[in-house]
Every structure is written in structure tokens, then in C-alpha cells.
Amino acid sequence: xxxxxxxxxxxxxxxxxxxxxxxxxxxxxxxxxxxxxxxxxxxxxxxxxxxxxxxxxxxxxxxxxxxxxxxxxxxxxxxxxxxxxxxxxxxxxxxxxxxxxxxxxxxxxxxxxxxxxxxxxxxxxxxxxxxxxxxxxxxxxxxxxxxxxxxxxxxxxxxxxxxxxxxxxxxxxxxxxxxxxxxxxxxxxxxxxxxxxxxxxxxxxxxxxxxxxxxxxxxxxxxxxxxxxxxxxxxxxxxxxxxxxxxxxxxxxxxxxxxxxxxxxxxxxxxxxxxxxxxxxxxxxxxxxxxxxxxxxxxxxxxxxxxxxxxxxxxxxxxxxxxxxxxxxxxxxxxxxxxxxxxxxxxxxxxxxxxxxxxxxx
Amino acid sequence: xxxxxxxxxxxxxxxxxxxxxxxxxxxxxxxxxxxxxxxxxxxxxxxxxxxxxxxxxxxxxxxxxxxxxxxxxxxxxxxxxxxxxxxxxxxxxxxxxxxxxxxxxxxxxxxxxxxxxxxxxxxxxxxxxxxxxxxxxxxxxxxxxxxxxxxxxxxxxxxxxxxxxxxxxxxxxxxxxxxxxxxxxxxxxxxxxxxxxxxxxxxxxxxxxxxxxxxxxxxxxxxxxxxxxxxxxxxxxxxxxxxxxxxxxxxxxxxxxx
Lengths: 362, 258
Known about the structure:
The complex is a heterodimer of chains A (362) and B (258).
Chain A (H helix, E strand, L loop, with lengths): L6 H7 L4 H14 L6 H11 L5 E5 L5 H6 L5 H14 E2 L7 H14 L5 E5 L12 E2 L2 E2 H10 L3 E5 H5 L25 E4 L6 H14 L12 H4 L10 H6 L9 H5 L17 H4 L45 H38 L1
Parallel strand pairs in A: 1-2, 1-3, 3-6, 6-7
Antiparallel strand pairs in A: 4-5
Helix pairs in contact in A: 2-3, 3-9
Chain B lengths: L16 H5 L5 H9 L2 E3 L3 H25 L15 H29 L15 H14 L14 H30 L4 H13 L2 H32 L5 H6 L1 E3 L7
Helix pairs in contact in B: 3-4, 3-8, 4-6, 6-7, 6-8
InterPro entries (chain B): Cyt_b561_bac/Ni-Hgenase, Di-haem_cyt_TM, Hydrogenase_cytochrome, Ni-dep_Hydgase_cyt-B
Family (chain B): Belongs to the HupC/HyaC/HydC family.
Pfam family, one (chain B): Ni_hydr_CYTB
């Protein structure tokens, strides 16, 4: 009886009713954008397939991904998926600690060689031989390489693992490096966001279990079902954008009316995520709905795109306060002044020549 | 001998020798100028493209500015019926699509058109004569030469400017612009299939917005120089400039060979 339990077994063991289980399956199908006919498929997969073991490791990060994950809107996702994961290895959430925890990691790797999913929260710093992040007495980058070697696939949770996030912002002293630049021989799913939406996280895991394959990924390696459209494309304030009705200052009349936050530097038009559809905290709200622009946290290098409150971003290469317009206006001004001066000299030269010609004629 | 013309062909004289050596004037041009007072340079598609392109650039700069920094908030109708930003973007996208078609049309004409229609798209980098003429023209602009030379098409300095600002500049704006348009058109759309790779390459499209915006200023700087140089040369040089953009004919103000 060394059989691995199914997801359903674990759920039942957790005291979850079949009714709630079916609800979870239909909600997940909806979140993944699948038709109702997929609900029994998901249920069947959950009932029959041995659950996929997950090892969850933490590098340089703030644990906001885990925080988000345990707040999944549907409590089942939290209870079920999380408890199943912590059964294997998650150094932040598991019961075991110290040597016991490290032994559990080794045991999982040995037992499920080539079959487990490695979920990475945070990223490894490579500078000084990785000494800026030590877990279990070793640089995190070593643990990551070790755990990745026998993994079936890797999930890069959050902006840290996907792109580097704040610790990789310029000048990146620890040389924090996203996972896909360290592990190059495994399929990697990026689930960016700071943190990613909980339903997106559970949705990705459920999809992989149900269909036994990676979800369809976009060009940047993100699950297309959640990251193929911008916040802007599904924003409920979009009509105000098209109408040219913007919040001009915090707390002005337009802010109270809920106009578009574009002029306040909202990064919705350049941010690919599902916030404006799935929303946060059981669908209660998302940043724009609460009156603040999107900061673009699920985009590559979002810390290095100037202020969160500018649409035309600062280009620090040209000085702290310079942006495209200031540089352009300066260049146009200099060229314009040069042209004016050149025109003046040209006119003087021409006049001079005319007088000379007249003199010669005379 | 053509006794029935007002011009007397002077077989011993070789007109526009330096222009010929830089690859500007063709043998036909030189024969033409022996007989006529003008050389036909720019065929109608080139002239049409020039003005359509100029109009597109004006619309694109104007609307592009107000897309990055929108007009003050107005409320004169319900949001659904008030399409201020929407029309601004529509004009930008429409002008960009016309410009794209025009640019491809211009490339086509460079292939099938006359010798001068090709000048925009290359720089005769390995031609020593051409480089010497670049420096001559530079000296003319620095007031170190008393008198400019005659050119049939663009002078070598202008050719560099045209290539850098138009061929390279417009290509850059079309590539970045279509990548940005692909974001709104959505994944799987035609713009996305053609230009989406650039989104993936750049990563964060906020960067694309930034460099596209800088590109606008690049073109604005060109516009200032271009219009100034055209008017200045029309007055001070020995040949026509502004009317050539309309009629396609280059006329010369004197009959000296160089």
C-alpha cells in the first residue's frame, strides 16, 4: 500500500464533503476558462490520479506569495492544496524544522524522482558564491539546483522567481537572478505578481494535475489563461479612459467619481495579469478599484520603470528627473536654437556677399 | 548639332562631375541637363509619399503627445458617448496604418522607380568620393565654403540625414508602434503575430512606450533640421529645393558645370 493518495483522498481526510469538492471543481474550471463539461474531468482527475508531489522552496523573497496562496478565495484551495504541499516540503509552512525538514526534502526528491513539481518562491542571489541567501546552511542556489535536477517541472512563483523583483532592481548588489536564468534545462512556468493572485496559483496547480501537462504559456512563459490580457483591457474604468476622463490629482472631484487613473501613473496599460477579472480577497477588490493605479507588479523589472505615479517614465540615464519629454524638448530646443543661429549667420553672410558684389560691379 | 534649341550643347564640358562620382547623378541626368534647364528627379509616387508621410508625421506627433499626456478631463456627455481619448488614439492608429502602407509602397517604388528613388534607403559607405563630398557639404554648412555644389538628388549630408531619420527612424517607429498596437489588438491578432515578438524581447512594455516616445522627438528634431535646410538651400544654394518636392524637377540657377 505504498500508493500515493489522490487529491480526493486528501480532501476527504481533511473533512471536506463531496458537495464542497464538486463546487471546487466547477469554480476551478471557471477560473481556468474551461467549459462546464470539464468539471467531471477535473473531478475524475482529482479522484483517481495520485496527487502530484510538490516541493516548495524559498530563496530571496518576502513570503507574500505564500501569504497570498493561503488566502485563496475558495477555502478548499487553501486547505487542500496547501496541506498536500506541506506534506512534502515547504520550509516556511511545514511542521518539521531543522534536520528533519532537510531530511524530508531529500526523501521527497529520492522517492518521487522525476515526478515532483518544484515550486520556487524567491530567487537565488549569485554574487559572492550565493552567500546572500543561506538556507539549511548552504547557499540557496545550490539547494535550487539540487532540487531542480530531478523535478518534472518548475513553477516560478511571483515576481522574484519570475523576474527578480525588488532584490534584482538596479543596481542589484547581490546579483539576484530569476530562476529561468539559473535552471535552463527544465520547463518553467512563470506566475508573476507581487504576490500572484491566489486563485491563479491554485488554478495552475489544478490544471497541471487534471491534464498532466503544463498550461499553455505565452511568449514570456506565463500561463496564457491568466496573463494574456492587460489589466487595462478588462478594467472597469476603461470607459473613462476612452472618454478622456482622468483623475488629475489625488482626492480631486474626478477621483471621487472613479475616473481613469492613467494620469496618476497607472501601469494597467502595460501590465499582463488577471487582477481586473479575478480580483483579490475573494473577489472583493483590486488596486484600481480601491482608487490607486496599478504599479505593474507582474511585469519584468517593474521597480526600474521610474515612479509608480508617472505615465512618461523617468530615464535616469539622463539625470534623476529627466523623462522622454524633457530630453526631447531639450534636444528640440537646442536644435531649434542652433537652426535659428545658423539662419542668422546665413543671412548675414548672404547680405555681406551682396554688398561685395555691388562694390565689385561699381 | 541641335540648332533648333535655345541651349547649345557643349560636348567638351562634363557637367556635375562630382555628383556623378558620388553616385547621385546618372548618365541620363547629365544628358538631360545638356538639353534642358531642369532635371526630372522625383517621380509622382515619391512626391506623393513625401507629403502623405509628412501629414502622417504631423498627426502622429500631435496625437502621440496627447496619448502620453492626455488633454485635461472634460465632461460634456456620458462616458460612453464621449470618446475624446478614443478618437485621439483612433487618429494615431489610422495615421500609423497609412504611414505603414506608404512606407511599404515607398520601398516598392525604390525597387521599380528611377535611380533617385533608391537614394533614401542606402548610404554609399564605401565610396571615397561620396565621403569627400560629405565633408565638402559640412564645410558649406559651417560657412567655410563660399559656394555650394550642384546635386541632382540629395546632397551627401542630406542623404545621411534621410537615411538615419527616415529609413532607420520610421522603421524604428513602425516596429515599436506596431508592437504597442499588438498589446491592444490582443494575443493571436495579426499585429501580435507579426510584432508580438518585440513585446517578448523587451519584457516590460513600459520600456516600449518610453523608447517610442523618444523616437517621436527624434523625428521632431529631424523635422526642424529638414524644413530649415530645405528653405535655406532653396534661397542660398544654386538649385531648386521646395518646388522640386512638388513638381519633381530640379532646376539650376546657373549654367556652370560644377
